[in-house]
């Protein structure tokens, strides 16, 4: 073996030119090369940083222009990651509205388990109370405690469904009720209803807010939700020929069971089978229509609805 006199690159014995720097090779042996090297210095010639020609031996040099382009690309990537993180993290922290997924043409479920529903609803209680406290005289902390009290929940089975019922007896006359129906096979929520027997709508507001906007969506949409609930209430007792409202793939319909002043609200996935049961009695809108509900109803169905301003 021999080495290049100029750059120190290791060569085969028969080499006439250095494959690294192109220097013409002389017939030398290793002893001739090593005699010129300080054997007390353990750094090999290719790593001798005093020899500028030997820096980054075996690697192509990067031009100044390429370095600038690389640094700019890395900086741009970091900016993109920061921006995406700034947008994505709050969305993940706030919790989006539960998605509805189709199992088949006749069956749709909320993409969440019963426990996930309880967690999402529980996280929605305080934001809704803060935004729409005009609707409730009950104490926020008391409401949260009662919702999370296992003694207020009971369950039973009906064919392929497990039903979970929360009942909080507010006083002798009024109570708050929620029924969550879960599919046995998928363990996903099939439908949710609010059967509150009271003059207050706070439970229906929390439920509507969570299913439409997610856990903290009420912060920017309080007046929209106020009008949404107001219209649902009006829908049941008006002379409209409609009985339900479809928002994207979420079907909501108010239905009177006992107390005509306080209909039960049902929330479920809008499948073909269910929509056929309602015939032409469904108002079809989207979430984008809700901020201008009055105009959307007028333009699409000729219905008159006066936008309501939230009281102070």
Question: What features would you describe in this structure?
Answer:
The protein has 312 residues and is of the alpha+beta class. The chain folds into 3 domains: 1-61, no CATH class; 62-94; 100-301, no CATH class. The chain contains 8 helices and 12 strands. The strands form 3 sheets. It has an 8-stranded mixed beta sheet with strand order 5-6-7-8-11-10-9-12. It has a two-stranded antiparallel ribbon with strand order 1-2. A two-stranded antiparallel sheet has the order 3-4. A hairpin with a 5-residue loop joins strand 7 (175-183) and strand 8. Helix 3 packs antiparallel against helix 4 (140-147). The longest helix has 31 residues, at 64-94. Mean pLDDT is 78; it is low at 28-59 and 83-94.
**Beta-strand residue fraction:** 15-25%
Q: How many separate helices? A: 8
The computed structural class is alpha+beta
What count of domains describes the coordinates? Answer: 3
Radius of gyration: 35 Å
What does the largest sheet look like? 8 strands, mixed
Strand segment count: 12
Q: Give the low-confidence spans.
A: 28-59, 83-94
